[in-house]
């Protein structure tokens, strides 16, 4: 298995894919949920509401893993970002505005932004700072 170089990694993470965010439950067991994400070249960004179960789990333990992979039917490729998460109040709405059109068609994105915009103050950013990044380059 060949690791991706930095250019491959950045390019792979720039594509809209559903990621899986792993956090830890109170008993130490993993909890994995699908999420939208943005890679800023240094950290992965995810949004959620400030009262979500993800935030409750992160208050107990900041260790996380974000897993992103190619879909079935194309050469296998994936990135796993292991690190720590911080929760930020600033920037959540901007992240939502950038990501929604990437994951939804234009009509669904407009409808979703109107709905979610009614609760702008509830959104927060989960910033995942990598401790280790593992990957598998396509075709390796």
Short précis:
The chain is α+β, with helices and mostly antiparallel strands and about 140 residues long. Helix content is about 30%, strand content about 35%. The chain has 4 helices and 7 strands.
Query: Which stretches are low in confidence, meaning pLDDT under 50 for 5 or more residues running?
Result: none
In helices, the fraction of residues equals 25-40%
Structural class: alpha+beta
- Which sequence of SSEs, written as H and E, runs from N to C? HEEEEHEEHHE
Corresponding CATH superfamily: Electron Transport, Fmn-binding Protein, Chain A
CATH architecture: Roll
CATH classification class = Mainly Beta
What strand line-up does the widest sheet have? Answer: 2-1-5-6-7-4-3
Number of strands: 7
Give the number of domains.
Answer: 1
State which percent range the strand residues make up: 35-45%
Number of helices in the DSSP assignment: 4
Shape: globular
Kindly report how far apart the N and C termini lie.
5 Å
Mean pLDDT: 96
Topology readout:
Blueprint: H1 6-14, E1 19-24, E2 30-35, E3 38-39, E4 44-49, H2 53-60, E5 63-69, E6 78-88, H3 92-103, H4 106-117, E7 123-136
Antiparallel strand pairs: 1-2, 1-5, 3-4, 4-7, 5-6, 6-7
Helix pairs in contact: 3-4
């Amino acid at each position: 298995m060949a690791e991706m170089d930095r250019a491959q990694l950045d390019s792979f993470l720039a594509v809209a894919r559903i990621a899986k965010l792993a956090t830890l439950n109170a008993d130490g067991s993993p909890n994995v949920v699908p999420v939208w994400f943005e890679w800023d070249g240094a950290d992965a960004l995810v949004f959620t509401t400030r009262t979500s179960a993800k935030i409750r789990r992160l208050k107990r333990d900041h260790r996380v893993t974000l897993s992103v992979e190619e879909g079935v039917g194309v050469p296998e490729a994936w990135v796993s970002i292991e690190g720590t998460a911080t929760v930020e109040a600033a920037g959540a709405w901007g992240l939502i505005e950038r990501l929604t059109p990437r994951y939804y068609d234009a009509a669904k994105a407009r409808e979703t932004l109107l709905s979610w915009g009614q609760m702008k103050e509830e959104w927060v950013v989960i910033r995942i700072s990598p401790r280790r990044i593992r990957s598998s380059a396509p075709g390796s």
